[in-house]
Task: structure prediction
Amino acid sequence: MNDFESSLVKAVDASRAETASGKRAKRMKIGQLARKTGKTVRALHLYEELGLLSPERSSGGFRLYGPDELARVYWISKLQDMGFKLAQIRGLLDAVAASNSAPNAMQGVRELFQNKLSDTREQIQKLLQLERDIVESLSYLEACRNCDAPSTQSCAECGEERHNGLSEPKLVAGIHIKRGEAKGGNNEEIPSP
Result:
């Protein structure tokens, strides 16, 4: 949890504690909520238009937000961090509201989060492989610092002996292939990974 999230959670907890003790939680205008959450006023208006937020109105017609709305904005932010679009978040709320029991409602949420966890873990694996590919390429390219070849043509002919026995990584190999031509000068297609 970063500093922003931590301060937001503390603010929500403090507001809810006031409410639980019988005090009316301090209400905020939209600008204050925007500053507390890091969201724009326009974003908060959009949340309201989509039915994600339902602020009270003052006698003068101003939108007033309390701890529940603050918590809802935090929740929306977390779901957006997970990759959910606002329409999907709206759909999630609709599905929970339409469920005939709390266990059924939470089962749908649980399944959604399990799928998102699986997708996230898959993405992490792809990113870890990308990290390995980049590290391998940087290690290989380190030998290029001391190259005295007059032209980049010699890069395509550079062998493992100049690169401490490392074979050319895929991220580097793609640089040396001329358009429409595979290594070796023939017109064979290069297989995709």
Summary: The first strand starts at residue 56 and ends at 57.
